[in-house]
Amino acid sequence: MPRDESAAIRQPMISPRARRIVISIILAAICCFWIYPLLWMVSASLKDNAAIFANEGLIPSKPTIANYLRAWKEAHIGAYFFNTVFVTVGSVVIVTISSSMMGYVLGRRRFVGRRLVFALIAFTIFVPQGYTIIPVFDLLTRLGIGQSLWGVMLATCGGSFVIFVLLFAGYFSQIPNELEEAAKMDGVSFIKTFWYVMLPLSKPIVVTVIVMQTLYAWNDFLLPLVVTLANPAIRTLSVGVYAFRGENFIDWGGMTAASTISILPVVILFLFLQRYFIDGLAGAVKG
Amino acid sequence: MADTNLSGSPSQRLGARIWASRTDYLFLVPGMLIFGAFILYPIFASEYFSLLNWSGFDANAKFVGLANYAELLQDSFFWNAFKRSFIFTLSTVPAQMFVSLIFAIILNNKLLKLSALFRTLIFLPVVTPVAVIGIVMTIMLSPFNGPINMGLLDLRLLARPLDFLGDPKLVLWTLAAIYVWKWVGVTMVYWLAALQTVPAELYEACKLDGVKGWQVTLYVVMPMIMPFAIVIALISAISALNVFPLIQSMTQGGPYFASEVMEVYIFRYAFATAGAIPRLGYASAAGVFFGLSIMGLTLLQIFAVRHLRNRERTNAA
User: Fold this and answer.
1) Which is deepest, A94, A115, A190, B273, by most CB within 10 Å?
2) B280/A38 Cβ within 8 A
3) Does the predicted interface ipTM exceed a cut of 0.85?
4) What residues of A are in contact with residue B280 (Cβ under 8 Å)?
5) What pTM was computed for the model?
6) Which CATH number, 1.10.3720.10, 3.40.50.80, 3.30.70.360, 3.100.10.10, labels domain B67-316?
């Protein structure tokens, strides 16, 4: 009876399956349009400058890798690439370990001063980078790392640190007590419990933090720009690509090649981890 | 556990409790070093720096009280940048939230086979570094042979090429559109997360009651994910106020300061002085003023959220 009724009300013009196919086609068209600038970038990087200015189609008539060789040599993209990897890997390791430890004690333990730490963190969550950049630069200079990759790496750890701590704290606080107590009964130390029991349990957040910090470090612009103003040798890719543009604005082929090189690693990483990332982030937003 | 020591004086008990949690404090050390050095300290140091006339060398630092602020409030370029930061934010946040919500609602459909692929494609600009987007977009929008102008000319939508980044009237809107394009992917993920909190039974119930597709979205799903909208708006607004990289890499605030937002202004006085003496104290004052304005707005918003939630609760009761 209810079945008949609903069928009578919802008399679809086309079958749901056909509708989904139509929606998929429309979405595919939108997505092509959406990533057109990136497709164009890769395509231009494989053409010589004359072909780019001639505005031929997306598929290069005479593909060339000359742009990549020029970008790699003239723009020092190779060196900048390793600078960026150094900063990114270093900051990801430091941030993941320190924010998980801090999140763990804040989320699960009770100690004097816990509320104060939480309050300080909540107070700083929305501070813009323009507000802190001058003291950060000044501090790095005083520490003697104002013009070094170590300085960039350490200061990059501050970027989204607060959010990561809150993610870990929220996640850890929801894990049931039994596992931890069992470990305690077995005489496993606090540190070992954290490392072998709690951290593996929080894998979704660990992956999310790794991906987000990688994105942040790979993308970061203001800090590396400021630190490397006087020392071009330690530029990161973002800053290098930006400077290359300032010096060679006519060389569209070289610039698109440099750009393509600098997005490849993050895109590949993201394609591999996107499933965990979106799930982890979704879990975190929900929690 | 900590209360076993009831015989001691309060201070002794406090000492014992702190001693009992020593491993906890040890775990806090690495995080607190980063937090203290690169987040907490700069917030307070900025306020101190803003009271100095200072070029970056200690010997030159001179305490000038609130003089920087007095000068700031009279600087029309400061108010220009301040205004543009907020115009930029107020125009990008609603657009970004709306477009990403549409994407999320469509891609939340589990029966859509390729939805993971579409999500990834929409997410690609998020993964692309801003400096790269700056370059590619500058080329694409170029009035000389740029593909966008050529395309619009070919389609006869334009009579002559538009100078998207060189025209003071167009530049901020062009940047806003690019910004929205870049960041919609992230906001979409937040919306998708929000949509997952809507129980499947609800959709079933709607089906039985004969409520049609868009009505379900509008009258059932939307009210349920509204609390998320406030959080998403807040996160989006904060990141829009931090738009420095995109603008610096595309226009450096030009032409004629038409796209100069607060962070570009700060950068110009502190670091991009090109021959002139850097004014770190003055730039700090601008940063503090801007930061405090944002924090004020954040607090206002938090109170607004509380108010709304309380009202909801009383309505529900």
Assistant:
1) A94
2) no
3) no
4) 134, 138
5) 0.85
6) 1.10.3720.10
